[in-house]
Design brief:
By secondary structure, the protein is mainly α. It has 9 helices and no strands. The two termini are 18 Å apart.
C-alpha cells in the first residue's frame, strides 16, 4: 500500500507513535480553540509552520499537504466568506487547514506498522464492547493509506485528460476518476480478503 510515510531522524520521527499522537492531538485541539480573528489566523499559521520547520518534515511536505487538500479549502473558504465574512471565514479556513496538515505529520513520520500497533493498543479497551481492536486499527490504517492513493489517481487522470485535450472539464474528469477509484477499491478488497480479512 502507498503511504505518506517519509523516513527521517527528526524530532517527530523519534517520538513513539502513542506520544506523537497525543502531542499532535493537543496541538490540533489548541489551534481549534483559537479565536476566529486575524491575529488568531496568524497564530494558527505560525504554529503550523513551526510544526513543519523541523528536520524530517520541512516546508516541502507542508506545501504538498496543502496542495492535496486545496479543493476542501477552496469550498470551505467560499462558504465561510459567503456566510460569515472575511475575518471569520479566513480564520476558520486557516484553522481547518492547520488541523489537517498538523494531523498529517502523524502519517508522514510514523511507519504503518508502528501506527497499527499504537492504534491497536489505543483501541484495546473496545474489546469489552465486542469490537475487534485489530480490525478497527486496520480499517483506520487502510483509510490513511488510501487518501494519498486517491490524490495520486486524481493527478494521473488530470494528466491523461490534459494530454487528450480535455481541458478542465469536470464531466470528463469525474467518470474516469470514479472508474479508477473503484478499481483501486476492488483490488484493495481482494488483497485484504486474500489475507483473511473479512
Amino acid at each position: 500500500m502507498l503511504t505518506l510515510y517519509r523516513p527521517g531522524d527528526g524530532p517527530w520521527h523519534r517520538l513513539t507513535a502513542g506520544r506523537k499522537s497525543a502531542v499532535l492531538g493537543l496541538i490540533v485541539l489548541g489551534v481549534s480553540v483559537v479565536p476566529a480573528s486575524w491575529w488568531g489566523a496568524a497564530l494558527t499559521a505560525g504554529v503550523c509552520l513551526a510544526c513543519y520547520a523541523v528536520r524530517g518534515a520541512g516546508m516541502g511536505a507542508l506545501v504538498r499537504q496543502g496542495i492535496a487538500i486545496r479543493w476542501i479549502l477552496a469550498v470551505t473558504l467560499a462558504g465561510q466568506l459567503l456566510f460569515l465574512g472575511a475575518e471569520t471565514g479566513v480564520a476558520n479556513t486557516v484553522r481547518i487547514c492547520a488541523a489537517v496538515v498538523i494531523s498529517g505529520l502523524l502519517a508522514l513520520t510514523t511507519p504503518v506498522s508502528e501506527l497499527l500497533e499504537a492504534l491497536e493498543r489505543g483501541l484495546s479497551p473496545l474489546a469489552r464492547l465486542r469490537v475487534d481492536p485489530q480490525r478497527a486499527a486496520l480499517t483506520i490504517a487502510v483509510t490513511l493509506s488510501t487518501l494519498p492513493v486517491l490524490v495520486r489517481l486524481e493527478r494521473e487522470v488530470r494528466e491523461a485528460q490534459n494530454a487528450r485535450g480535455g481541458g478542465r472539464s469536470l464531466r470528463l474528469f469525474a467518470i474516469p476518476f470514479l472508474v479508477v477509484s473503484l478499481k483501486h477499491a476492488d483490488a484493495l478488497g481482494d488483497a485484504l480478503t486474500a489475507r483473511g480479512v473479512r
